[in-house]
Specification:
mainly alpha, de novo design (two linked rop proteins)
């Protein structure tokens, strides 16, 4: 496998981007009363995941890369909570999104460990 030349070449970034698109689609169905509440929070947390993966990609040192990847991991966990909350509030069925988040989480953990051990 050739090394990634751009962050868009990273499979973990692509999966995280697909997760964001799915979060946007699901939150479009939320009530208007949640636009500045849960919708905004969910979208910001989700967007933070691929954005931080992209930022980590161009960082030079391992510590810098690891820091941004760790921020992405934290944002992904925040996203998971919001999905659980939205489901418990009856705003959506979030099982498939939670599965997506789990897939991204595993890939992100693998990428993080590779960076630290390279």
């Amino acid at each position: 496998m050739k090394p990634a030349r751009r962050f868009q070449d990273l499979i973990v970034w692509r999966k995280a981007h697909q997760f964001v698109l799915a979060v946007y689609r699901v939150t479009q169905q939320f009530p208007k009363s949640e636009l500045y509440g849960l919708v905004s929070q969910m979208r910001r947390a989700a967007v933070s995941v691929p954005a931080n993966i992209a930022e980590a990609f161009k960082k030079v040192g391992k510590a810098d890369k690891a820091r941004y990847l760790n921020i992405a991991q934290g944002s992904l966990e925040e996203s998971r909570y919001f999905l659980i909350l939205a489901q418990d509030l009856g705003l959506c069925q979030s099982e498939s999104l939670l599965d997506s988040a789990e897939e991204v989480s595993k890939m992100l953990e693998t990428y993080y460990r590779r960076i630290l051990n390279s």
